[in-house]
Amino acid sequence: MQDLLIRNIRPMGAEAQDILIRAGRIAAIGKGLAAEGATIEDGAGAIAIPTLADTHTHLDKTTWGMPWYPGRKGGSLQDLIDNERNSRIPLGLDVHRQSMRHAIQLVENGTGHIRSHVDIDTDHGLSLLEGKLATRTALADAVDMQIVAFPQSGLMKRPGTYELMDEALAMGADVVGGLDPSSMDRDPKGSLDAIFRLAEKHGKPIDIHLHEYGELGAFTLEEIIARTHALGMQGLVGVSHCFCLGMPDPLRVGPLMEEVAKADIRIFTTGHPSAEVPSLQDMRAAGIKVGLGCDGIRDTWGPWGQPDMLHRARIVGMKNRMRRDDELELLLDAASRGGVEAMGLEAPGLVPGAPGDLTLVAGETLAHAVVEEAPRPLVVKRGRVVARAGRIALPGVVMP
Amino acid sequence: MQDLLIRNIRPMGAEAQDILIRAGRIAAIGKGLAAEGATIEDGAGAIAIPTLADTHTHLDKTTWGMPWYPGRKGGSLQDLIDNERNSRIPLGLDVHRQSMRHAIQLVENGTGHIRSHVDIDTDHGLSLLEGKLATRTALADAVDMQIVAFPQSGLMKRPGTYELMDEALAMGADVVGGLDPSSMDRDPKGSLDAIFRLAEKHGKPIDIHLHEYGELGAFTLEEIIARTHALGMQGLVGVSHCFCLGMPDPLRVGPLMEEVAKADIRIFTTGHPSAEVPSLQDMRAAGIKVGLGCDGIRDTWGPWGQPDMLHRARIVGMKNRMRRDDELELLLDAASRGGVEAMGLEAPGLVPGAPGDLTLVAGETLAHAVVEEAPRPLVVKRGRVVARAGRIALPGVVMP
Questions:
Q1: B275 and B134 share a domain?
Q2: What residue stretches are annotated with the Amidohydrolase domain (chains A, B) (predicted)?
């Protein structure tokens, strides 16, 4: 592959210089770099950061680009789950097409890593996973995608789901998912034992949706922590949402965060606007590795969201009452490098030797870049330009 | 003034028809309308709604278009207030220029009514008000602007502020403002008596910032309700934020909302992402007239926000866990017609005889229009096109 030399960029907001990417990795950062035969790009003085990471999304759910979906419901989590499961086929929600639309826009907006859950249920079997695997293959040059086999309709409640999860992990799903072992599965011991058993069998990490609030969530989290230690899975377990760490009692939350950090459990947060969410600042101060995610975008659950991690970072930042530049810089790190680290991948930042994944962003400073609504001028994956001025620019990849 | 005939629009999402505006008011809505000599616009099948209303903002605060401001602080409300008051002059924050930038963008995004607070303090005297009055005059054809004389640094705490408020109201401020009579002014009786005395003297309505949480806020709110009844000011008093109505106790909040409705006190909410906010659905169900507002945009307080009421509506909708189409329609009404009504102005919606204020919006349905991020194709104020494709289009008005 040709070298890529991007001239006149500001790495992490520093003064303007060049960056050379060779064989997919950053070879040099400095002034007046030269590389014979390299593809040359002009960065026009824009700030460069590592690519963004959407560490919690559902590429199999969006209705983006389809006719407006008027059938959204209120009601319980179970109602929303049932509405979606029963709507997919009548709606014609083709997972490959829809996940392409969703993921391509994430790439256009500077995303280089995605962790996406995919529903595994006894109605749809593995068909949704198949659609998403096709998308991962189609976009392999643009984005690194981890797929979580996610028992959206319950693991214990619907017999046959465990076996489907087992098959999904054999087929190429990277991560064992789970959903509210207490409040949804109604059997925390059974549910968690099953999740960890699958992880052990397949040698794969775990990422459990935990919406459970307050003490119920804390109880389930304690059970997750205990199993993480017992099975030596430190660094391989993630908890998504983890609203219980947003409890208002600091005397309960502080020690819990310490336990999460000790077990090296990763937390994936979306900054849910209408829920109690764990403080990003406090989690980072406790040493927890945190990723941010856009979650579902305009799906049968809700109309909200944009396939853009800076949009999501703003939601997380507002939710966490971040104001100062240093807070916005922490936020941007969590939306990019920190999220990749939380996914269990190499994430050294923009330094020589690092993966050649970067995006240019609009703005005078890193803090400004978080809030400025503007297309990403250039997105680079492993030393190859994949998007330009907010549009996919990878040969053979077209928005469906 | 020439008549304006807009062809091929969908009023409130209905089937395509035409709308005729004559002498600043809607003269007819129907199919195949004709009007000799009228200016003709093609609506291209877009949905038309009444113009949006930003009922709570601070046009005198934004740093938009200035160099990135890195000096934001954490700390108490008092720290943020002091930081702003001490920064205005060193920063070169010219209120006329900045409020033009802010208000023109609101207009470009379909806003036809603005209620803006302006700081009145003993450091700046009436100079900030003067800048904003100039902006109101410059944009008189594009937007109706109510200016609230706002004692940002305290009414009781800084002697001389009352007299400045009195002058501001004589100079052209439309509304008497106030700020946390208990927690900031530390003298709820003195502060509220002063505010209501100014309102009585000038015959002007009231709009009080009430950030006070929980029981303290409820206490202050009860005092506001009592004075509203005692002075016969039903319909003329507004409370902005009113976080206390976001208390988690429905047995306390329900009856309080009923009292607010009985006194016809208007509530202006921004859906503050990191605060407990009153439920929009519950307030409307209780019969309270509610306006939404963008609040400060990228000012010395915080980096967040966009000068766009649909952007704000999305924040309010997510905060209130709105999902269904009927909820999004309620939200859109609060962001437009409902807000104008809460400001005390005529707001019948898009019907013959109504003021000729409308904006076209992108989207297949009203609900879709709330979430779709796209420029407003056409904005009309009193029968005159004021913005087109998201850009101001009013002769003589240029973005500074």
A1: yes
A2: 42-387
Is B398 inside a domain boundary?
no
Cβ-defined contact of B324 to A373 (cutoff 8 Å): no
| Six token digits for residue A400 | 């469906």
| Upper half-sphere CA count for residue A389 (Cβ side, 13 Å) | 3
For residue B301, give how far its alpha carbon lies from the nearest alpha carbon of chain A (Å). Answer: 7
Residue range B167-185, pLDDT digits in tens: 999 999 999 999 999 999 9
Residue B238 φ/ψ, nearest 5 degrees: -120, 150
Does B303 share its domain with B330? yes
CA-based nearest residue in chain A for residue B66: A364
Query: To which H or E segment does residue A149 belong?
Result: strand A144-150
Nearest-CA residue of chain B relative to A317?
B304
List pLDDT tens digits, range A214-268.
999 999 999 999 999 999 999 999 999 999 999 999 999 999 999 999 999 999 9
- The total number of structural domains that make up chain A: 2
B287 located within any domain: yes
Asked if A30 and A74 sit in the same domain, the reply is: no
Give A43 to chain B, closest Cα distance, Å: 20
pLDDT per position as a tens digit, A301-335 = 999 999 999 999 999 999 999 999 999 999 999 99
Mean pLDDT of chain A: 97
**DSSP run (H or E) holding A91:** helix A77-91
pLDDT of B336-357, one tens digit each?
999 999 999 999 999 999 999 9
Q: Are residues B61 and B86 in the same domain?
A: yes
User: Residue B231 sits in which domain range?
Assistant: 52-342
In a domain, B195, yes or no: yes
- Say yes or no: B248 contacts chain A, CB-CB below 8 A: no
In A318-357, the residues whose Cβ lies within 8 Å of chain B are 318-321, 323-325, 327-328
Q: Is A76 exposed, middle or buried (0-12, 13-18, 19+ CB in 10 A)?
A: exposed
In terms of Cβ atoms closer than 10 Å to its own Cβ (0-12, 13-18, 19+), residue A35 is middle
β-partners of residue A49 are A359
DSSP-assigned beta bridge partners for residue B360: B48
The answer to whether residues B21 and B73 belong to one domain is no
Domain identity same for B283 and B364: no
Q: Are residues B16 and B136 in the same domain?
A: no
Hey, is the C-beta of A273 within 8 angstroms of any chain B C-beta?
Answer: yes
Whether ipTM tops 0.95, in short, is yes
CB contact under 8 A, A368 and B274: no
The predicted structure's pLDDT at residue A75? 86
- Measured between beta carbons, the chain B residues lying within 8 angstroms of A273 are 273, 315, 318-319
User: Residue A132: which CATH number?
Assistant: 3.20.20.140
Q: Are strands B290-292 and B266-269 parallel, antiparallel or unpaired?
A: parallel
In a domain, B399, yes or no: no
Contact yes or no for A320 and B74 at CB 8 A: no
Collapsing DSSP states into helix, strand and coil, what is residue B205? Answer: coil
For residue A113, what are the β-bridge partners? A53, A144
Residue B28: its H or E element? strand B25-30
User: CA of B73, closest CA in chain A: separation in Å?
Assistant: 6
